[in-house]
Amino acid sequence: MREKTQRALLTTVLILGAIVMFFPFLWTLSTSFSSGAGLDATPQLIPDQPSFSAYQTLFSELPFARIIVNSLGLAAATAVFQLITSSMAAYAFSRLPFRGRGAVFAVYLATMMIPIQVLIVPLFVQMRDLGLVDTYLGVLLPGVASAFGVFLLRQAMNGVPRELDEAATLDGAGHFRIFGTVVLPLVGPALATLAVFSFMNSWNGFLWPLIILRSAELKTLPLALAGLQGQYTTQWDVMMAGSVVSILPMLAIYLFAQRYVIQGVASSGIK
Fold first, then answer.
1. What is the value of pTM for the model shown?
2. Most buried one in 2, 97, 234, 265, CB count within 10 A?
């Protein structure tokens, strides 16, 4: 009886927590379908007269389709580059013995404690000297490597039995073949986790694109949403429509990859 009571209490707490977490998204979606909604409008979770006018305004008065493509392209490219660089570095730290490996890895991880605000000026100077200001490549380059990604994948690769490497070596395989055909297939959940995290960070990135981009046609989604607040100060339905558009890709990716994310985090030992 006591166990059932505790389970019922825990279930109730989880349901209430889920409602609290879900309510802002429901409010955002509802406001986006409320034509002309503002701060002085009567709060309604279900609009009396649902309308797509906010979405029509969003795509007719702004190059929002181009903005979405910009963000998708940059986020996908960032995810691909981080998967490549992080997996190769993680294999080196996990499988290749060299002097000072632990110290180098510790120093590399220490870079995770440096806030991006500290690096903005030197990064901008580098991009300026390379002639990459106001270019997609200028936005992309600082994010092609990830210390967190290396740590995540190294932890996952450390869980792969070394006996598999030895068996592949006896068959004549080198490090590149072991890396591509033995280790990578066994850390698939960790790779999926890193892909989701890197895509999400690039998709939501605001400060660095704000510093490096100048042209309106190169803007990413967070910059466009920030611009909506100035252009449509009282048109909260338009702002919420933009927020809904920005949420949908991440929601779809998470629903598709949540199983792999949970497996990847669990196998890497991150709590």
1. 0.82
2. 265
Encoded tokens for 132:
């990459």
The fold adopted by the segment(s) 52-268 is MetI-like fold (1.10.3720)
The structural domains of the chain, with segments of one domain joined by +, span 52-268
User: Burial, 191: exposed, middle or buried (Cβ in 10 Å; 0-12, 13-18, 19+)?
Assistant: buried
226, two tokens: 């920030």
Length of the chain: 271
How far does the chain reach from its first CA to its final CA, in angstroms? 32
d(CA 230, CA 184): 47
Count, in order, helices (H) and strands (E) of the chain: 14, 0
State the Cα angle at 77 between 74 and 80, rounded to 5°: 150
Digitized pLDDT (tens) for each residue of the chain, 271 residues in all: 677 788 888 889 989 988 888 888 888 888 878 776 555 555 566 777 777 888 888 888 778 889 999 999 999 999 999 999 999 999 999 988 888 888 999 998 888 888 888 889 999 999 999 999 999 999 999 999 999 999 999 998 998 888 888 888 888 888 889 898 889 988 888 898 899 889 989 999 999 999 999 888 898 988 888 877 755 455 777 888 888 888 888 888 877 777 666 665 555 545 4
CA gap 133, 127 in Å, rounded:
6
Element (H, E) at 128: helix 116-129
- 101 SS3 class: helix
